[in-house]
Amino acid sequence: MSQNEVPLLEEASPSCTVLAASSGNGAGVAMQGLVGRASEFEGEEAVEADRSTSGQSPQPGQGQAPLFRFGVITDVQHADIPDGASYGGTPRYYRHSLQVLRRAVDSWLQSEPPPAFAVHFGDIVDGYCPREQSEVAVQAVLAQFERLPCRTFHMLGNHCLYNLPRARLNQLLDIPGDADGCSYYSFQPHPRFRFIVLDGYDVSMLGWPPEHPKTALATAILATHNPNENKNSPETLEGPSRRFVMFGGGISDAQLAWLEAELDGAQAAGQRCIVCCHLPLEPASTAPACLLWNYDRVLAVLRAHSCVVATLAGHAHRGGYARDGAGIHHRVLEAALECPHGSDAYGCVDVYADRLVLHGTGLMADAEMAFSTALSQPLSSSL
Ligand SMILES: Nc1ccn([C@@H]2O[C@H](COP(=O)(O)OP(=O)(O)OC[C@H](O)CO)[C@@H](O)[C@H]2O)c(=O)n1
User: Fold this and answer.
1) CA separation, residue 54 to residues 69, 276, 356 (Å)
2) Is residue 265 in some structural domain?
3) 31 alpha carbon, distance to own chain's centre
4) Where is this region: Disordered (predicted)?
C-alpha cells in the first residue's frame, strides 16, 4: 500500500482506498481562460432545475437495504464567540454550530445501518475566530467527529484558509494533499462508487504565500473580472459573473487533468462518481456569488463522463438543488452555522445502485436523486 492509500472499510469495501492527487510544485500554474476574457463566461447554459428530483415511479431500490450510508454536514464554521451575523446580516451561531454537529454525531451513532463514513463539506472554523484559538476550535470540531467509529472526509473552505495555513489544515483534517499543498483526492468506499473531492481554492487569493504563482494568477483573475475595490464584493457584477469574489476560487489545469483521469478510471471500472467540493458547481443550484470560478469547465468534464451521478457542495449556507441537462444531480447543503438555537442541519445519504437518498434532519431538506444503472454514452460533452 502506498502512502496515498488508506484503508477505510474492511468488510464492506475491500477496495476502499484514499488516493491523493499528484500535481506539480505550483510553478507555471495554469487555469485556462480566466484572465482577460470576461465575455466567455456570460452565457449561461440551460439547465433543468427540479427540486422534486427525479424518482417519481416505483423504484427498484425501494424497500432494499442501501449498499452503504454516509453522514453529511457542512459549514460548521465554529468559533467560541457570541452569535453574530454574515456580511449581509444573516444570523450566525458560532457556538451552537458545534451542538448541531454533536447532535449529528449522536444520530449517526444510533443509525441503522451505521454510516460507513461522514463528510464535512468545508469551513470547519469561522474567520472571526481569534487566530490563536483556531486550532482549539478545529480540535473541538474534530473531537465530535472522532466519536464516530468511521472516518470523516474533509475539504477546504475559505474560512479554513482565513485561519490556518494550508499545510497545517491538510495535516489536521487528514487531507492527503500533494507536496505543493493542494487538497484534492478521491476515495472508493464501495467497489461500485468513487468519491472525488475537489479543492475549490486551488487557484485563490487565500492560503498561498503572496509570492506564489497561484496568488498571482488569482489576483489577475479578480483584476480582470471584478472592478470593485473590495474584491470580496460582487456589487455591480451580474449573473454568474458575481462568482469573481475573493472568498471564491477555482481549479487549476493540473487539477482538472487529474479530475479527467479519475473519471476516465471510474468509467473504465464501471464505478459511479459523486463529486464533492466546498464551492457549488451548477448555477441553477445556488446564488451566483457562491459558484466555483471555472465551474463551466468542471461541468463540461463531468458531463463528458456518464459515470458522474451527483455533485455535493456547501459554502452557500442555503440549500439548493438542480438537475442539469446531462442528468447530473447538484445538491448544495444547508449550513450548520446558520441553524437557530435548538435547530439542526445534517443528514445521511443512502446509496443504492440506482439512486442516492438524502435523509435530512431539521433545516436540511430530503432529496432523492435517481440515476440510470447503465453506464451509457454522455448526453453531451459540451452543454
Ligand atoms: N458582499 C460581501 C460579502 C462578503 N464579504 C466579506 O467576505 C468574507 C467572506 O464572506 P462570508 O459571508 O463570511 O463567507 P462564507 O463562506 O461564510 O459564506 C459564503 C456566502 O456568502 C454565503 O451566502 C467576509 O470577510 C465578509 O465580510 C464582503 O466584504 N462583501
Assistant:
1) 20, 20, 11
2) yes
3) 19
4) 42-64
Ligand 1 center from residue 87 Cα (angstroms): 6
The residues facing 35 across adjacent strands are none
Range of the domain at 296: 18-41+66-370
Which residue's CA is the closest to the ligand 1 atom numbered 21?
316
Q: In what order do the strands lie in the sheet with 367-370?
A: 151-154, 117-120, 68-73, 345-351, 355-362, 367-370
Which ligand 1 atom sits nearest the alpha carbon of residue 290? Answer: 20
Specify the pTM: 0.89
Cα atoms in the 13 Å half-sphere on the side-chain side of 256: 21
**Longest alpha-carbon distance in the chain:** 57
Contact (Cβ atoms closer than 8 angstroms) between residue 41 and residue 299: no
Residue 85 resides in a domain: yes
Residue 299's CATH number: 3.60.21.10
Per-residue pLDDT 10s for the chain (383 aa) are 233 333 333 323 323 345 665 443 334 567 666 664 322 222 222 222 232 344 344 444 457 999 999 999 999 999 999 999 999 999 999 999 999 999 999 999 999 999 999 999 999 999 999 999 999 999 999 999 999 999 999 999 999 999 999 999 999 999 997 778 899 999 999 999 999 999 999 999 999 999 999 999 999 999 999 999 999 999 999 999 999 999 999 999 999 999 999 999 999 999 999 999 999 999 999 999 999 999 999 999 999 999 999 999 999 999 999 999 999 999 999 999 999 999 999 999 999 999 999 999 999 999 999 999 887 644 433 32
What are 252's strand-pairing partners? Answer: none
Q: Give the CA dihedral 269, 273, 276, 279, nearest 10 degrees.
A: 110
Mutate to test the pocket of ligand 1, among 74, 75, 77, 87 (most ligand atoms within 8 A of CB): 87
How many structural domains is the chain composed of? Answer: 1
**Ligand 1 pocket member 87 (CB < 6 A):** yes
